[in-house]
Amino acid sequence: MAARLLSALAEGEEPALARLAAHPDPKVRRAALTPACPPAAAARALADADAGVSAQAAALWARAPAPPPADALAAALAARPSSPALVRLLAAARPEDALVGASALRGEEVDVSSLEVVDALLRGAAGAERAAGAERVAAAAWALARSAEPGALPRLAALAAHPLAAARAAAARALPAGHPALAALAADADAGVAWLARRALDGAFAPAALAARVGPHARLASASARPPYGLRPYDDLPRVPRVRAALALCHARFDANVGVALRSAEAAGLEALFLVGERASSLSSARGAELAVPLRVVPDAAALLLAARAAGYQLVAVQQTPRSEPYHLASYPPRPLFVLGAEDAGLPDALRAAADLVVEIPLYGLIDSLNVSAAATCVVMHWRAHAAPEPSGEA
Question: pTM for this one?
Answer without folding.
Answer: 0.74
